[in-house]
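Re: that backbone. Tokens:
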């Protein structure tokens, strides 16, 4: 197979040389946690070393410029202001801090996509239980994407939030986030976008998408450190969302009966944080920006569509990705062997994938009657040769399942 554009072969070779993990594993688990590039690891290690040399607080003071760079890099990626970004420990808490911050009431309706991630839906169930608000699932089109006309038809003055998963955990589907944003804007309803799997895969302009809030993680397609993430909140909404948890960083204790909450998005943060990770996150975001998210997305889509085509030619294998626009995530099942065994067989050959089980996306898995799936997710540093090798490994495992 030839290498797809827009990166020259020599550029991919350089990117792989900058990614030590590619020497050890065939990594198709980028939707789990991508292999970080050297500069990201170096930035973290440097910071941890400084913590050990001069002290954690002192090292943080020294890293202030790098931390500011992290806010700036994320703001550049999203086309927003630095004051609209909170640095978080993962995507789930980012989503939670926004979601639980809304004063939902008894008659409110929360509209949520069928591809919702379990953690988000569980939080919505808890809020519905506590407040009496109703959760309504937005219908999907034949392709499995969120049905924008169906959403429009559901809208009324009781809708208190639209929550969309941009790219679900269980497949290559890319939901039409900007079309949903247009509906949210028309109705002036807050729109919370889970961009956990899309951040780092594709351009994400918050203004163009029209989301009020956006949550993402560092370790997946952004190739950042584990234990990092971020939340974007539109400036116009920050003052209307009360963080469900506060500490002395998010707020200032001003008197025996009073406190002031920070005016910007840092109201959603905590004092204690993984500083080395946040520094590394900024380096990772910059790395993606320097390569260009349009170019990254084009290559990912090319690689993933060849992988899907090759998988569909393997005897007994069914590819399950929904949607007409698809990204770097591919999911499949095989008649011969269940997903966990395929994952284990591949792991024994230094090939990394993950599995996606129905409870992680219960509504979608039920609607499409999905079994537990193997999730093979490519990144731009993967190659057509790796796809060939992957198919060879998989075929060998399925031929001799013992
Ligand atoms: C679509 C989606 N949303 C949210 C999350 C949660 O991200 P985190 O583990 O960083 O909290 C995931 C994780 O796999 C995900 O796939």
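Recovered sequence:
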């Amino acid at each position: 197979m030839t290498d797809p554009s827009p990166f020259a072969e020599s550029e991919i070779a350089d990117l792989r040389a900058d990614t030590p993990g590619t020497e050890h594993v065939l990594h198709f688990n980028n939707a789990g946690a991508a292999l970080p590039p050297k500069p990201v690891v170096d930035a973290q290690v440097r910071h941890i070393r400084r913590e050990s040399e001069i002290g954690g607080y002192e090292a943080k003071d020294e890293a202030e410029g790098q931390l500011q760079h992290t806010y700036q890099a994320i703001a550049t990626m999203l086309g927003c202001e630095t004051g609209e970004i909170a640095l978080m420990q993962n995507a789930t808490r980012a989503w939670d801090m926004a979601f639980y911050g809304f004063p939902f009431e008894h008659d409110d309706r929360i509209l949520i996509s069928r591809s919702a991630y379990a953690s988000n839906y569980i939080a919505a169930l808890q809020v519905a239980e506590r407040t009496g608000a109703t959760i309504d699932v937005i219908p999907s089109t034949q392709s499995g994407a969120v049905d924008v006309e169906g959403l429009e038809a559901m809208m009324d003055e009781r809708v208190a939030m639209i929550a969309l998963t941009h790219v679900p955990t269980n497949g290559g589907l890319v939901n039409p986030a900007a079309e949903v944003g247009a509906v949210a804007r028309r109705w002036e309803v807050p729109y919370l976008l889970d961009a956990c799997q899309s951040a780092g895969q594709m351009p994400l302009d918050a203004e163009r998408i029209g989301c009020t809030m956006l949550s993402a993680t560092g370790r997946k397609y952004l190739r950042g450190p584990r234990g990092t993430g971020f939340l974007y909140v539109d400036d116009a909404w920050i003052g209307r969302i009360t963080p469900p948890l506060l500490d002395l960083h998010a707020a200032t204790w001003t008197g025996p009966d009073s406190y002031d909450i920070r005016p910007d998005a840092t109201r959603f943060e905590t004092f204690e944080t993984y500083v080395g990770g946040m520094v590394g996150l900024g380096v990772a975001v910059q790395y993606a920006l320097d390569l260009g998210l349009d170019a990254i997305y084009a290559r990912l889509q090319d690689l993933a569509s060849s992988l899907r085509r090759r998988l569909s030619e393997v005897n007994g294998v069914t590819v399950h990705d929904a949607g007409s626009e698809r990204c770097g995530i591919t999911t499949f099942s095989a008649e011969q062997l269940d997903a966990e065994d395929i994952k284990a067989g591949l792991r024994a050959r230094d090939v990394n994938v993950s599995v996606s089980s129905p409870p992680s996306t219960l509504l979608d898995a039920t609607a499409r009657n999905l079994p537990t799936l193997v999730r093979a997710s490519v990144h731009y540093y993967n190659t057509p040769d790796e796809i060939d090798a992957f198919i060879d490994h998989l075929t060998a495992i399925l031929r001799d399942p013992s």
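The two ends are 30 Å apart (CA to CA). The mean pLDDT is 97.
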